[in-house]
Batch of 3 targets.
Target 1
Amino acid sequence: MTRAILIFTALIIFLLSVFKLGHYAYFSRNISNELVLAIIAVVFLVIGIYLNKKSLHKKPIPPKHINTQRIIQLGLSKRECEVLREISLGLSNKEIAEKLFVSESTIKTHVSNILVKLDAKRRTQAIKKAREFQIIPL
Amino acid sequence: MTRAILIFTALIIFLLSVFKLGHYAYFSRNISNELVLAIIAVVFLVIGIYLNKKSLHKKPIPPKHINTQRIIQLGLSKRECEVLREISLGLSNKEIAEKLFVSESTIKTHVSNILVKLDAKRRTQAIKKAREFQIIPL
DNA sequence: ATGGGACTCATACTAAAGTACTAAATTGTT
DNA sequence: AACAATTTAGTACTTTAGTATGAGTCCCAT
């Protein structure tokens, strides 16, 4: 958010500078007028594409946006989200433990907490709810 | 691709038209010069956003209907597909048994067969593969 | 009518999953 | 530094999931 404001401020300053240049340096000449127009067009075309890319998919690979708002509402921690994602990939507790370099006991604790927070009885139900809540990719 | 070329051609024509207008109508006035610049900037910003949105929105693959072709390939029976769907809804074997009015043993048999046919070790992995194969709704 | 496929059910077993605690180390914030 | 939240890990236990095997019933097609 703050970054977006900064970028916009920079853009406005840049725009004003170009206007100034158009005024002082190329006041009487008409050829340069067109050049300024063209530059403005191209620059803003690029800016438009850039802005949209930033706003639409922040991370390149998962096109679908995860609902961070709901993750906070549910009180899911960072690690729990990680475990939840691995569950959705069909891994067992043991496999998740090996993948994340922790013990199986730890994963069991995480899973239990996830089930409580998602109000699910089983990990399969947790997957279903996580999909509905859009808190896991794909 | 062809559509993109057409759009670009239209844009170039539009740009040239604006140039012409800038030449004939607002030749001597400097105030309107800035106005034209501003319009160009806004228009191309919008165009940039629009173009990017078009290219990005094509990405999400429409899951649409279930792939009956693959179900046949995998050799999944009608009942097995039914059980698979219930698994994806997060139900336990017991719950599925009650829902389909059969014993839990029957469901266990079905699940085992499903796992073999989908080459999955767990029901969670079966869900993941079933999604990829598009043989379950949503 | 015979055979094959699908569906059903059972038993006995092993392997995961999940619960209910307790507790230490880590991390971030005030 | 003090505090809360997170992450880690353990034990002991219950429940669910999954495997292996065998067997009975039904329906459909050759």
Target 2
Amino acid sequence: MSLHDGSVPRPKSANGRTGRPPVTSRAQILAAARQLIDRDGWEKLTVRRLAAELGIGPTTLYHHVRDKEDLLLLLLNEYVGQVPPPELPSDPAERIVVSATTMHDALSAWPWALEILTVDGFLGRLDDSARWIVELVLAAAVDAGCTPEQAVHVFRSIWYYTAGEILVRAHSAHVRGDDGQPLDRTLLANLKATQLPHLASVANKWSVLAAEDNYEPALRAFVTGLLAQPGR
Amino acid sequence: MSLHDGSVPRPKSANGRTGRPPVTSRAQILAAARQLIDRDGWEKLTVRRLAAELGIGPTTLYHHVRDKEDLLLLLLNEYVGQVPPPELPSDPAERIVVSATTMHDALSAWPWALEILTVDGFLGRLDDSARWIVELVLAAAVDAGCTPEQAVHVFRSIWYYTAGEILVRAHSAHVRGDDGQPLDRTLLANLKATQLPHLASVANKWSVLAAEDNYEPALRAFVTGLLAQPGR
DNA sequence: ACCTGAACACCGTTCAAGT
DNA sequence: ACCTGAACACCGTTCAAGT
């Protein structure tokens, strides 16, 4: 790497700055990206569309962000950094629940953010503005009697549950059978009731049950179970 | 839809069958797809590569599978259907743990299969050969005293945890910092220790802890917590 | 310093024509 | 009945040339 700041000769211009004037900025790009996602959905965010949105050439973007992954990471840090911290209860176990729920709700509202987190190994790519949520969970776990190492395991377990819930639910949201029927019908239709009796007994209400939000009660059960583990 | 079976006039040929002879088959396509994934990795499975592998034109594939999603689903059902059923213990709670672990281990070995499951709303798209794993968990939960409805919630919670664990770990596996350093360094480097003390205290061993397999103990804690929930 | 169009190396899928 | 090449409508990214 031989690049270092200020090594490039700069042609002076009238206004004291140098070179061709910018037609956009990183801030503008991020704002446009967010607008595009909110309007057309996450899967429509492509480098080319984003450029078109801004009225610039696709290649111009590469002067403001390293690549698409970099863009997504910037977007994510910005978003998580703006999540307001929750009111924390004094009971440590309940504090874990509230902290995790805050994380969950923030990411549920922006499920695409979670896809970035999953793909990128998440923690290492966030900056401090986003990592405070992790800190909350760790602190509460330590308060509940965990060693720092155990607290990390508690956090990870909760993170897996939370990430799975959001990802699966986000993707299942509007899935229908081939014919547009809700899945119950399909489920029932080709089910050998004699071989799978329990599945058969709930097949006709599966999609109703699957639509119910059970995140928090199950999370509470998980936290209780984790904190009650032997060997601590 | 005006298509119905046998409505197309068929030119007879010498061997008693009709039309141009096939150069491949669905079974051959699935076998080649699996080989391609095992050899080059899941992300290299594209319609065009798969066709090249088989020595046929990309468009020929569309006579044997509806589209790429259909191909993945066929692949997945085949795989899950071949998973051997586990030895089940008599204790219902432990039976949930063993059943879920079987599901987990099978999908861990084939993480790309899980991506399909997540994307496609999973359950409704599987056939009976794959759904027996769900049945095992439901049956065990009912044996443990759950109503069928509660059993579905138990299954879903466990599924979220399992799916999250596999997805996050599969994607985090080989993530390094920009400079190829393990993430601990990056984590430590830009960490404001005074603001995030608990995170700071584990930063240097984070990646070691994150590499530890904690699936089963945490699952057991989860199951214990779920079955101990009030209001049942 | 910043922007641009052309180009590269890909995708999944459709469709008319051939055997 | 099955196969084919050409074509469509896209991707992310690089690079030499322009202002």
Target 3
Amino acid sequence: MSTPEAPKDFIRTIVAEDLASGKHETVVTRFPPEPNGYLHIGHARAICLNFGIAEEFGGRCHLRLDDTNPAKEEARYVAAIQEDIRWLGYDWGEHLYYASDYFETLYQWAEHLIEHGKAYVDEQDPETIRAQRGTLTEPGVESPYRDRPKEESLDLFRRMRAGEFPDGAMVLRARIDMASPNLNLRDPVIYRILHKPHPHAGDQWCIYPMYDFAHGQSDAIEGITHSLCSLEFENHRPLYDWFLDNLPVPHRPRQIEFARFNLSYTVMSKRKLLRLVEEGRVSGWDDPRMPTLSGLRRRGYTPSSIRSFMAKTGITKTGGTVEVALLEATLRDELNETAPRRMAVLRPLKLTITNWPAGRTVPVEVPNHPGRPELGTREVPFGGSLWIERDDFREEPPKKFFRLAPGREVRLRYAFNVVCDEVVKDASGRVVELKCRYDPESRGGGGRKVKGIIHWVSAEHGVPAEVRLYDHLFRLPDPEAEGDFLEALNPASLETVRAVLEPALAAAGAGERFQFERAGYFWPDPIDHRPEAPVFNRIVALRDSWAKIEKKGG
RNA sequence: UACCCGAUGGUGUAAUUGGCAACACAACAGGUUUUGGUCCUGUCGUUCCAGGUUCGAGUCCUGGUCGGGUAGCCA
């Protein structure tokens, strides 16, 4: 399942070298999400990287829930995380781990540090500890407890575990260097008291290790060779290595950092996504406009398009913003190849053929994919009463508009040419119907060549449906550029229309993706669609060069 | 005026590790087409700056500029 043309990035280069030099016999990576929220497309990069490398080099990739903080984590996220990773196409086999399963070992290692004079219990309150940490330009101040006898620290630490002290009463700190220019090395807190049951470990702990004291050690326990994380952990690497240097770990992993990525027209932080959900700006974590994997899945994105997108954007240490246009182009590329074509009228306008024999219906043979004849054809019923796209008619056509207008001729795709003779309006002046004349000689493309070709659905046979037209959630490339990102929300990110589908679409099965000709790629909404009440989502629109021409001319 | 990291078209990545700056997306111009889709062709760069080494520098050296990260008992 490896993604084609995967670029050889600096991390893969390191892995290849470590394998070639014999430093490692096999590569072991891990994807370590904290179960405190839903996975988004930013996580997909880490997933594709870690699982991708394991796959390409014949190693393995572990799924590890990084659950060291019961105050923020919930068991319900674990299932969602697994579902998202599987959906993306990756499998951790039996290698499902929890950092919390290592708590006992971690605890023993903490005592080991104390016994070697490399950790101490600090009874100062959080404010004092913070004040003593110093600033970016000034060194910190040593805690008065820093040099207390190790026996005393050991006793206190054991009593911390036994639950003798309330939350915040004291912490265990690594004893490193309060003057280090790297703040992470200024005697970091490694254990805190938290009288809170743990979603995975249950109620056996009331002290919990901090990330820094858990991550590298977990890597070591699992035999991880390359521990890949995002750039913001770069400053933590010296600490990561310090623990490995000072603990009797069974293995030596290496941390390598890569740049996180940003996508234009969206936000990625869990906090902001949560706000969208909580304030009801979207329908939930799986709203098709959300950059979450569950949102993209519901929207209709294919996992392969996301993997391929990740391969195209590559892995570097340069922070940047990828244009959503690339994601969309990647999806279109795939769907153009694979999606069967259908006709659907999104904003229906009645077209009546005045010279069509009353009550007559003829089947029109239509290819399922013009570029792939092997996909066969289907019959679409054609009659004298049709729906066409409202946008395909202009009473006063602008320059370069070559669709229908009074007196103009267009081809009804795969069927006949028609000329518009009369425009019918209602009392308010709104166009409600076009009366046209068809050319019996023009069937299937015979007769005059015309510039305009439009799609249609027989009014008698068409199936009404709700169609949800999704657009970017934000109207600015960088929603957080200025002020509140909510002000950048795109008011038109969802438009729901009452459309009419060609009959064949009524039988669409779950998971089937189609191109609605001239409109875009669509699929039945996985939750709301029912055969008797169809609901389709627009996954992505087709490129629309007429819209560009019109925008320029207007 | 701390420490760490980064800088190549509008965007994201390449460049045989010192040898003609390449690919994709976007934009623009044209061609093909029973989807204004697809497909095809073309256009779009002082490789952050200044010096230096070299026959030759995106790549090496020195200095600078700009951008990002870091002061949770979050991860």
